[in-house]
Amino acid sequence: MFKETLQFYSDDSALTLQYIKGIMFLLGDIKEFEIFKNEKDSPYKTLDNNKLYSFILRDDKNNELWLKNPFCSYGKAGEYATNKILKLLGILDSFKLKEKDYVKEVNLTPIHKLNLLISTASSKSNNNNHHFWIVSNFKYAYELLKVKESLSTFGLCCAAKQKDIKVPPALKIFEPKEEPIVEKALNKHNKKEHKYDEFAINNEYVFFMHYNEKDIDTLKNIVLDIIDKYNGSYHILPV
What we know:
Strand order of the largest sheet: 1-4-3-2-5
Helix content: 10-25%
Low-confidence stretches: 176-199
Strand content: 15-25%
Number of helices: 5
Structural class: alpha+beta
Mean pLDDT: 80
């Protein structure tokens, strides 16, 4: 018996994502999910209005989340939206969704990490001076989401496309073994782009605003305070 069953029925994938962000504080770690490619195959139906839900997620707090899954057709837009939801919840999409009519995955181990590179603008060149990494880890997806939202005020952005950043071997990058269909389409237009925040978790981040050397200690303390506020653990890693 599930403690809470949350339901959201919409054909709008962007609206579905916003709904999930709004109720993430109610969710624990997602431990399993089911996706039905054909909505009519789903047994998850409401009794009052006969609505069928084809994307079902279950967490470690005994909650269920039912989504209409407007992207269950697994087309280009469909796989993109499905990946974004799984990534938001810390789940690496390695399930070959587009090849199956039905997917059920159990015993999942979501990842909620943030690797933040602290850099300052160089007065002698156009390049930044990289100082250290703040490597943080969180218990739940909601905590990481709130940290990213808080840090966005200071110019947080994904650094995956910046080729001048050398990632320490200790920071493992979790990405799909096969390029998602949307990424393949994008790569046809730009061969240099090979990583996208929508399809990767535990990725590297930087601040796109330019900070000076004198800002380092203040910036570090602000970041650590925000991580502490949302129950994260962290350590400092040299470049």
